[in-house]
Every structure is written in C-alpha cells, then in structure tokens.
Amino acid sequence: MKLRFIACFVFATSALHAAEFRAGAATSNITPELGSSINGGFQDGKAAFIHDELNARCLALDDGKTKLVFVVADSCVIGRGIFDEAKKMVNEATGLPMENMMMSATHSHSCGTLQAVGQSEPNPIYQRFVARRIADGVRRALNNLVPAKIGHGSVDVPWQVFNRRWKMKPGSILPTPLGVTTDQVKMNPGINNPNLVEPAGPTDPQVSFISVQTAEGKPLALLANYSLHYVGGVGPGHISADYFGAFAVRIGELLGVEQQEPAFVGIMSNGTSGDINNIDFRGGQAKEAPYGRIKIVANDVAQAVANALKSVKHSDSAPLAVAQKEITLGLRIPTPDEVEKAREVMKQSKLFPRMETMEQVYARETVLLADFPKEVSAPLQIMKIGDLHVSAIPAEVFVEIGLELKKRHSPTFSVSLANAYHGYLPTPEHHKLGGYETWRARSSCLEVDASTKIIAGLEELFERLK
Length: 466
Known about the structure:
Layout: E1 4-8, E2 22-29, E3 37-38, E4 45-46, E5 49-50, E6 55-62, E7 67-73, H1 80-94, E8 101-105, H2 124-143, E9 146-156, E10 162-163, E11 165-168, E12 185-187, E13 196-199, E14 206-214, E15 219-226, E16 238-239, H3 242-254, E17 265-270, E18 276-277, H4 292-309, E19 320-330, H5 336-346, H6 358-369, E20 375-385, E21 388-392, E22 396-397, H7 399-409, E23 412-415, E24 424-425, H8 428-433, H9 450-464
Parallel strand pairs: 5-16, 7-8, 15-17, 21-23, 22-24
Antiparallel strand pairs: 1-9, 2-6, 2-9, 3-4, 6-7, 9-14, 10-18, 11-12, 11-13, 14-15, 19-20, 20-21
C-alpha cells in the first residue's frame, strides 16, 4: 500500500514579530468508576473492567497576543452543558475567553455515559467530575506553556476507512423501527451480504495533524484528525479509549518520547465520520481478537503520521485567531398522534421501563422528543493557526461535509462532536436516501437542511478570519 502525504507549512516568520510563540500540553484522567453506565448502544452497558484509562487530552497555543486551547475527551458524546461548565471554570481561573477553547468528544463507544443517548443515562456526579477534570487539564496545559515551534501536515491512510451506508438490491431493505418503508440505503448491512450494491458515499482518507515541538526541537504534542467513527472490538463491559487512545500512545512510542519531561501528549480527534467506519463489507479483513483491530488501526495511522512528520518544517511563529457564532437549527418533533401511538408500543415491553425491541426503543425516542424545543442554538467555531483553519461542528458530521470544506479552504480540517452535541448531521441528499442516521431520535433530530445552514455559518467564519 502506498502512502501519499502532503507536508504543509506556510507559517510566516516576521522580523517584526517580537512575541515568543509558546505551547503546552497535558492530560487529565476522566475514567469512571466500575458499575458506571456505558453508552453507545441501544441497551445500556455497565463498566466491569478498565482496559485503559480515559483522558481529556489538552493542547494550549500562545502567539504572544492570543491563546487557543484544544481539548479532546474520551467519551461517546458530551453535551454542551459539560463543555460550557469546564470553559467557565477555566475562564474564571485564568481569564482565557470561553470562545478560545475548542472541546470535543472522540466518540469511543466504550466510555462512561456523559449524555443521555439510547437507554443510557448519565450520572450527574460523573458529569461534574469530567467538567472539573477537563478544566484542570486545560489549566495544566496553560501552566506548561514553554517556547515552542509548530508545523502541520497530512497523510492519506485510505485502507482503514469505509463508508458504512450501502445501496442495496431492491426489496432487501426492511421497514424502519418507525415504520418507514422508503429507505434506499442500509447502515452496516453485514459483511458479504449478497444484496450489497455499492457504498452510498465516499470516504476521507486524509489524516491531518498539528505538530508542536519545544524550542530545542523535542516533540511536545501532536494533534491529529481522522474521519473514522471508532473501531470497537473491546471486551464485554470494558472501559477503553478505543483507537483514539491507542493512537495517542503509539505516536509517542514512534517519536521516542515515552520518558520525556514534561510528558509528550498525543491526541486524535474525530473528523467528519458520521457515515464512516472501519468495516470492509466486501469481506477484506481478517477476524481479530478483542483490541486486535484497534491496535492495527492505531499503528497504521500513527506510523503514517510519524513518516509524514519527517518532512514537516516547524516555525517559531504562527499567528493565532478564532471566530465563533451561534446559529439556530430546527428539530424534527413528532406529532401528538405519533406520540400516542409510540406510548402504546412502549407498553408492549415486558421489561418496562426498559425497552426490548428496536421498535420499542424508537417509540421511546419519539415520546422523549415530544418534550424537546422546536429549535436549538448550535455553536460554530473556527480556529486559525497560521494558514491552517480548524472547524468545530457540534454533531456527528457526514464525510461529504468535511470533504466540501477541504475542497473550498485547504489546508483545513473539521472536528466533529465539538463544543456541544446535536446528533447526526446528514446532508439533505442523504436524508432522501434514508437509513439509520436519518431515523428520528434524540441522536438524529436536526432539520433536513441543518448541514446546509451549518456550512453557510462556517463560511461566514472563514470570511471573518481572512
């Protein structure tokens, strides 16, 4: 397999720029206690074993005028309340503006529940604990600021990403749990399913990364971004950071900085992966033992980044800027008649209040959505580092959206599940195709044109940062 990488570097160094560029990084442990809820599935899970610790991984940058902070936390999804609480604590302690912090979840499905999704409910004590630990991690990263150099680049790793939405042969797609019979695609259709026709969309093979070194050239931190939902394949009841955590460890090993002081921090953020996973539905992958596939993906991606990093030049100057705005998005709220029918379906569960079947699970979602507001305010944010733009989108963003932004504004990448959580973000075209990601639920309730409005909002921010 051939690697194609692009070493990007146009951070201009000005003789008039007297301020010293600095960077700092830190991790903050956010592992839940045993017995805690694990979300990411239609049924709630319970933590029975800690395979690897969960962390909020933090990177702080300072050009002498502006400070920016990135946080990537090991969690399936994190609601805005937790992020805002953490930002407020940092702001009160340091004066750093809240809009200068970009916080996101990895989307690992083997972490403690922080947002009500499916039939998992968060423990308020754990929510407050994570908010505090994120804030502590940011403050530690700020305390660790030292003279530094920065660069960025990208490398393609196409063989670990697959579109999980497939067009199927006519008549092979069953009605949805909500009774819809017009779906034209199926999510996760099964390996070597004889009804497979073709993937319903592309993939984004690019791994983008920001590399930070000390003034002496020693690796300090690396923030990467890959459009891969997660990998999975963990043990039952296991708490794990998935490939995101494995990458963070492996990139440090490859760069030879395991015993460094202060410790090197590797970070993997989730790109636009709402319709992307690691399963080759044509049957091109061998079956692995638990954590086997996670290690393969983490190693392949880390090795590719480490190789690409050799061609990246680092500069001791990179002007920083940030722009943020709120946009209003409508929600797809069920009608009173739909809610009444859903209540009847829920009553069929023999384990009430827990739902057993998919039909019952989605009936419960319908009832819960009835109490949602008709509109929500969604934060959009772009951080500019030299010529690189990093967008934050508060949803599980479809890959087509990220590819469009890269086409318009290279070099750029997008971080999903950032600063808030508003469920899946399909394009209007994918809404027409149907499929799991469009089925109305708390995890998929944004209006059909939400992605169009989000792209328009981001374009305003790109223009503001020119």
